[in-house]
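can u do me a favor
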């Protein structure tokens, strides 16, 4: 399971997901004690939106040109 989370976080960063989106999907949204005790919102809507966004990204990456897409993203990151 750790490798799936690590892969998601790495690729999500390449695809410009926010830290909050990555944390919500990986169940890390309530890091602080204040959030844990006072923020009872479970982020299910945001988690669903982010997961659907991830699904679309995976469909592109797994398509026949997926490797080319990954390489384009990596090259763009190098120029930033």
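np, heres the sequence
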């Amino acid at each position: 399971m750790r490798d799936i989370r690590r892969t998601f976080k790495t690729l999500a960063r390449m695809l410009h997901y926010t830290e909050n989106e990555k944390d919500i999907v990986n169940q890390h949204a309530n890091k602080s004690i204040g959030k844990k005790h006072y923020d009872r919102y479970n982020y299910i809507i945001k988690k669903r939106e982010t997961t659907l966004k991830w699904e679309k990204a995976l469909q592109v990456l797994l398509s026949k040109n997926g490797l080319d897409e990954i390489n384009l993203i990596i090259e763009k990151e190098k120029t930033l």
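The chain is about 70% helix and 0% strand. hope that helps!!
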